[in-house]
């Protein structure tokens, strides 16, 4: 094993690796419904803002700015719920909520894709679609809807291919792990929902 090659790789990609580690930790804490997830996720948002800007994935860079806003909102919304109820409670999503979210994601995909194509972004339409639906998933997550995990699974699977194509191997590996964490989150939030229903 050539330690010089490894050291050079770590030196060249330290920011992306830091974002990967921070993101995994933040999502894992989210699956556990722990309030501390939000400052960790905020740090990951800011790191990946820089990573995506450097690789000209402008929709993803823009997404990180929205993630910062959703992270701050989610942090406040969860904190308020913990203060009032003593725990983070999972909230069901209505059919109307599903349809509105998916429609908003589609509209955002078209508008953002058009904009990104005009400014010369890499993979403008694909990246815009993933960005748009990531915003929907983030909103659902901040609102404590279990449906967020289903949408994250779908989006993250497509992101893996995009990042491999762009040569962001640590990030592609991260998103493969995020699919696993989303499955874990789905399982744990379902259990929390069942426990709450039994308690009521």
Question: What layout of secondary structure does this protein have?
Answer:
Elements: H1 3-31, H2 37-54, H3 58-85, H4 95-118, H5 124-142, H6 147-165, H7 169-199
Helix pairs in contact: 1-2, 1-7, 2-3, 3-5, 4-5, 5-6, 6-7
Helix proportion range: over 70%
Please give the count of helices.
7
The ordered string of helix (H) and strand (E) elements is HHHHHHH
Runs with pLDDT <50, length 5+?
none
- Coarse shape: globular
Radius of gyration: 17 Å
Biggest sheet statistics = none
Give the N-terminus to C-terminus distance in angstroms.
Answer: 58 Å
Mean pLDDT: 88
Query: What's the total count of β strands?
Result: 0
Strand content: under 5%
- Structural class call reads mainly alpha
What characteristics describe this protein?
200 residues, mainly alpha, 7 helices, 84% helix, 0% strand, globular
Descriptive notes:
There is one protein chain. With 200 residues, this protein is mainly α. Helix content is 84%, strand content 0%. The chain has seven helices and no strands. It has helices spanning 3-31, 37-54, 58-85, 95-118, 124-142, 147-165, 169-199. The longest helix is centred in the C-terminal third of the chain and has 31 residues, at 169-199. The chain is globular. The protein starts with a helix and ends with a helix. 38% of the residues are buried. The model has no long low-confidence stretch (mean pLDDT 88).
């Amino acid at each position: 094993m050539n330690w010089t090659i490894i050291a050079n790789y770590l030196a060249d990609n330290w920011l992306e690796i830091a974002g990967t580690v921070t993101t995994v930790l933040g999502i894992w804490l989210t699956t556990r419904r722990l309030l501390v997830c939000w400052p960790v996720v905020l740090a990951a948002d800011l790191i990946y803002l820089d990573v995506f800007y450097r690789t000209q994935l402008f929709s993803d860079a823009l997404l990180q700015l929205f993630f910062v806003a959703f992270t701050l909102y989610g942090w406040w919304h969860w904190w308020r719920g913990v203060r009032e109820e003593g725990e983070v409670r999972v909230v069901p999503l209505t059919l109307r909520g599903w349809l509105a979210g998916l429609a908003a994601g589609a509209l955002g995909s078209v508008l953002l894709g058009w904009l990104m194509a005009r400014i010369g972004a890499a993979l403008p339409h694909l990246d815009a679609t993933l960005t748009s639906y990531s915003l929907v998933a983030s909103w659902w997550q901040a609102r404590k809807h279990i449906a967020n995990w289903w949408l994250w699974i779908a989006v993250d699977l497509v992101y893996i291919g995009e990042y491999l194509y762009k040569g962001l191997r640590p990030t592609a590996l991260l998103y493969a792990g995020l699919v696993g964490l989303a499955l874990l989150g789905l399982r744990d939030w379902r259990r929390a929902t069942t426990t709450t229903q039994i308690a009521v």
